[in-house]
Amino acid sequence: MTALTDQLSAGLNSPICLTWEWTYACDLQCVHCLSSSGRRDPRELSTEEMKAIVDQLAEMQVFYVNIGGGEPMLRPDFFELVEYCVEKGVGVKFSTNGGRITAENARRLAAMDYVDIQLSLDGVDELTNDAVRGEGTYARVREAMDHLRDAGFGTFKLSVVMTRENIPQIDSYAQLANEYGAELRLTRFRPSGRGVDTWHDLHPTSAQQVELYNWLLAHPEVLTGDSFFHLSALGEPLPGLNLCGAGRVVCLIDPVGDVYACPFVLHDHFRAGSVRDEGGFAAVWRSSDLFTSLREPTNPGACGSCGSYDACGGGCMAAKFFTGLPLDAPDPECVFGHGEEALAELERNGGAQRPVATSDHSKPRGVGRKRIPLTVVQ
Amino acid sequence: MTTYVFDSSRKWRLHDRVALRPEPFGALAYHYGNRRLTFLRSHDLVSVVESLPAHNSARAAFDAVGLDPKRWPSFEHALTSLAAGDFLVEADSE
Asked: Which of the 8 DSSP states describes residue A251?
């Protein structure tokens, strides 16, 4: 590790990348939703509580927040809060499924400064996308893209969770983004939230991981949010920080004010505290027991004898946790197959003990958009 | 795109839309205009950047913060990359 990553591992005065989920409400029920969103939680933060958080973030010099959900635009005070952030000098990057990006809303967003938009699209065609995000969502997000372009919003981001089904479409994604003058943002599919149930069938194969790694090296302009650092074990490091930032440079505030180590670990085990506690978010970030322990040097565990540990750091904590692997085991998608071996070992010993969800806001079955059955189309 | 050459004999300052946040390793700089984030990896570099506008040249700023002349080339290198990312602008421009 470089001196800089050593220092980042020891934690920062304020997070670099703060994800803030504004609601658990969502009109979609995507099969890989990392927060198992669907229904609004009655304990969600009020407008005044939200503004108090913005005040504290401004004081901590958090330059921008990554707003997500659920679908953040479903909050009735969405625009009021975005405007409040911008007014306080906290930039807004928000992720949306695009359902509320009407022509009028697109114009309203285009008129605002410091606001960036990420539209989620998980397949470059209707068949691939709608299998994950629900029927009709491909057409709907294309409409949202048209509205942003017509409103002169400028560069927006197309955000894709990489799966076994859409990795073969990666060049088409780049082309689509290019047609709209958009930036492409690719992220890793983790077995978090509803992804616990679909990860096994949808996560990339090892051959696809190598393909993706080579593609990312050849396309350094593509954004990844550092999510593929486990692939750096294949050789040359990918652009970015290449470390697990959980509780060190990254964290998440959920819609009820709970603070978790990263967006992919919405589970009691990784809950550091609440913004409703004494001292608010700053106290949780600076002195919670969980974050303090995450900033201590990590034990390489089973990865200690592997020559690539310095490159991948043992991979993603969330991916291990939700597949039932110990946190010092290899990543389930370790590029050398050590994770698959570790999972197979668990199976031989009576099956992996996967953690039970502690935060699930999914709608009851049968509610929400119909999903196209998940089948591989050859 | 033009290749930006940092001239240490001129007067520089942070871009109006750049914010610095102190961190244990030095500082984080964020540019609200081009949305770039960068690391100022030492406290000496932070001191230099902060003192740039008070001096008629970057070299005068190096001198004023007591930087060993042997280290000047590496600081010029760091300031060049900050200028290339538009974090630094010439003091009489914009």
From this structure: E
CA atoms of B94 and B91, how far apart (whole Å)? 8
Return d(Cα A194, Cα A197) in angstroms, integer. Answer: 6
Assess: ipTM above 0.90: no
The answer to whether the CB atoms of A14 and B21 lie below 8 A apart is yes
Task: Find, in chain B, the residue whose alpha carbon is nearest to that of A61.
Answer: B21
- Strand order of the β-sheet with B26-31 is B18-23, B26-31, B37-40
- Test A61 with B21 for CB contact under 8 angstroms: yes
- How many angstroms separate the CA of residue B66 from the nearest CA in chain A? 24
**What pLDDT digit, counting tens, does each position of A247-262 carry?**
999 999 999 999 999 9
pLDDT above 90: percentage of residues in chain A:
86
Q: Chain A contact for B36, CB < 8 A? A: no
Q: Is the dihedral of CA B90, B92, B93, B94 positive or negative?
A: positive
Closest CA–CA distance from residue A133 to any residue of chain B (Å): 29
Helix runs in A65-181, H state only: 78-87, 103-110, 126-133, 137-150, 170-179
In a domain, B91, yes or no: no
Report the pLDDT averaged over residues A55-68.
97
Sheet of A64-68: strand order equals A183-188, A157-162, A115-120, A91-96, A64-68, A17-21, A250-253, A258-260, A271-274
Domain limits at B66? 12-86
The CATH number of residue B70's host domain is 3.90.930
CA atoms within 13 A on the CB side of A268: 5
Q: The tokens of A200 are what?
A: 């096994």
Q: Give the type of residue at A310.
A: D
Q: Does residue B16 lie in a domain region?
A: yes
> Quick check: is B81 in a domain?
yes
What CA–CA distance (Å, rounded) separates A106 from A180? 15
d(CA A333, CA A317): 12
Q: How far apart (Å, rounded) are the C-alpha atoms in residues A362 and A227?
A: 25
- CB contact residues (below 8 A), chain A span 102-131, against chain B: 114, 116
Give A351's pLDDT tier (boundaries 50, 70, 90). confident
Count of structural domains within chain B = 1
B1 within a domain of the structure (yes/no): no
What type of residue is B61? Answer: A
Q: Which residues in chain B are contacts of A89 at CB distance < 8 A? A: 19, 32
Q: What CA–CA distance (Å, rounded) separates A316 from A123?
A: 24
- Going from the C-alpha of A59 to that of each of A63, A85, A90, A249, the distances in angstroms are 10, 12, 10, 17
